[in-house]
């Protein structure tokens, strides 16, 4: 969770690693019998001074959002029975790319959740890698259609509360020349007018651009902090498109006046800090760092963490769970690394759990795995779900790679966060087309299969 003041801490969330969806070819939008069910509106909700990041219509149930292969953004609303694909909003974007060159350049789309305009409803920010950002404004009957965020320099790479005033702010990365980034301070009104702006002029090497952003309140002061990694391109190697490497990292701390540079590191081999994802692992209100990996040689998995304190990031305990059993059942196929992670309380015990997905290797498929209680759990506590698990339908996708789509959501309001994962198809050599979704309901014992729906039913 990104950092925020007391009023805004619970309102901000970045889309987890698995929320990135490559924009590719359009998929069919018919269901069995050739007819597609008409979308229904969700039950009416109400505004809140501190809206849940997952709840887009204020009815107390978190809602799922995804970008489909035809570039549409679809929101499926939660209910006391969980996600109901009939109750959805479909927002159309620009037509999908048609040529292989256009598809290669279409990039990825990131979805952020935050109450931008302070109306008491969480909004959904549509941020394509190439092209301008848009917003689906939250409201009592769900989100509205996409509205361009006019005047934005490009798509935001992070949301947070960088000055700690309780309003949502946006960070826009810079180019190879000029400021390394721009901050729009909230509230951002529906006319795309920020309260004020900040250009980050801390100085970065020419021909470098920020390519990775990590945000979180790493010192517990109520303001979101930011780490930027820069990519350097050698213009002398034009035949190979330029030689690219990560060249430097800037760490900026948030405060009443905005972001301020406090640390600069580089070149690449000197940068070892602030790796992984941000989240509060020990419940002290300060964001920590976590990461996961697979050990192919030892056929084991691990989750590592580095706690933060009031002194800043990576100033607390460094530890983790290592050498847990390989995901899946006995004689399971080889897995191809970790593709998608999320953090939250799935088991409902008040302690954060780790959810990861391991993509399939040569045998296809993969595993969704849960490490309960990251700080206090044991390696043997890991629990897994695959498309071979009893009661889980494979939907004909057993050989497709799949991954957690994040963030974790309480879609049925029972106090347990649920897991949504997607299977991805392969069209024209592109492998990030969501073809189907599964919902694993959070329970005291871990994850339990609840629902399956093909992507074609959501268009």
Structural class: mainly beta
Radius of gyration equals 21 Å
The strands making up the biggest β-sheet line up spatially as 1-5-6-7-8
Low-confidence stretches: 1-35, 238-243, 329-333
Order of helices and strands, N to C?
EEEEHEEEEEEEEEEEEEEEEEEEEEEEE
The protein's oligomeric status is single chain
- Mean pLDDT, to the nearest integer, reads 81
C-alpha geometry: globular
The number of distinct β-strands equals 28
How much β-strand is present in the residues?
A: 35-45%
Describe, in plain words, how this protein is organized in 3D.
There is one protein chain. With 459 residues, the chain is an all-beta fold. The chain is built from one helix and 28 strands. The chain has one helix at 100-105, and strands spanning 21-22, 64-67, 73-76, 88-91, 108-114, 123-128, 134-136, 147-148, 158-160, 169-173, 181-185, 196-200, 208-216, 225-234, 243-253, 260-265, 277-279, 288-295, 300-306, 318-325, 335-344, 353-360, 366-371, 383-385, 402-404, 419-427, 430-443, 446-454. A five-stranded antiparallel β-sheet has the order 1-5-6-7-8, with no helix packed on it. A four-stranded antiparallel β-sheet has the order 9-10-11-12, with no helix packed on it. Strands 13-14-15-16 form a four-stranded antiparallel β-sheet, with no helix packed on it.
């Amino acid at each position: 969770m990104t950092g925020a003041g007391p009023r805004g801490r619970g309102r901000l969330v970045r889309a987890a690693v698995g929320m990135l969806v490559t924009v590719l070819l359009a998929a069919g939008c018919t269901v069995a019998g050739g007819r597609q069910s008409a979308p229904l509106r969700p039950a009416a909700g109400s505004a809140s001074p501190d809206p849940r990041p997952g709840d887009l219509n204020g009815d107390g149930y978190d809602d799922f959002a995804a970008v489909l292969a035809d570039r549409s953004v679809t929101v499926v609303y939660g209910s006391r029975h969980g996600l109901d694909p009939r109750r959805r909003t479909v927002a159309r974007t620009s037509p999908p790319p048609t040529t292989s060159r256009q598809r290669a350049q279409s990039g990825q789309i990131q979805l952020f959740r935050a109450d931008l305009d302070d109306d008491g409803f969480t909004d959904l920010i549509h941020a394509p890698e190439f092209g301008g950002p848009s917003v689906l404004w939250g409201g009592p009957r769900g989100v509205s259609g996409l509205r361009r965020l006019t005047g934005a320099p490009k798509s935001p790479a992070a949301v947070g509360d960088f000055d700690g005033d309780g309003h949502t702010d946006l960070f826009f990365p810079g180019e190879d020349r000029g400021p390394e980034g721009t901050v729009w301070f909230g509230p951002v009104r529906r006319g795309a007018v920020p309260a004020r702006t900040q250009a980050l002029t801390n100085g970065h090497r020419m021909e470098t651009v920020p390519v990775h952003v990590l945000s979180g309140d790493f010192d517990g002061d109520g303001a979101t902090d930011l780490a930027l990694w820069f990519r350097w391109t050698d213009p002398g190697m034009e035949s190979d498109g330029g030689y690219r490497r990560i060249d430097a990292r800037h760490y900026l701390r948030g405060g009443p006046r905005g972001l301020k540079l406090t640390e600069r590191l580089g070149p690449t081999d000197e940068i070892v800090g602030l790796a992984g994802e941000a989240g509060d692992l020990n419940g002290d209100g300060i964001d920590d760092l976590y990461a996961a990996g697979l050990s192919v040689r030892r056929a084991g998995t691990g989750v590592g963490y580095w706690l933060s304190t009031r002194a800043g990031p990576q100033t607390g305990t460094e530890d983790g769970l290592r050498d847990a059993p390989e995901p899946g059942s006995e004689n399971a196929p080889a897995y191809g690394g970790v593709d998608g992670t999320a953090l939250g309380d799935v088991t409902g015990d008040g302690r954060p759990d780790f959810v990861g997905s391991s993509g399939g290797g040569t045998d296809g498929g993969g595993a969704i795995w849960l490490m309960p209680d990251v700080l206090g759990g044991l390696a043997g506590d890991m629990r897994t779900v695959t498309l071979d698990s009893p009661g889980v339908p494979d939907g004909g996708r057993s050989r497709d790679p799949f991954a957690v789509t994040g963030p974790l959501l309480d879609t049925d309001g029972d106090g347990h966060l649920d897991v949504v994962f997607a299977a991805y198809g392969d069209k024209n050599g592109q492998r990030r087309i969501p073809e189907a979704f599964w919902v694993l309901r959070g329970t005291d014992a871990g994850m339990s299969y609840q629902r399956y729906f093909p992507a074609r039913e959501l268009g």
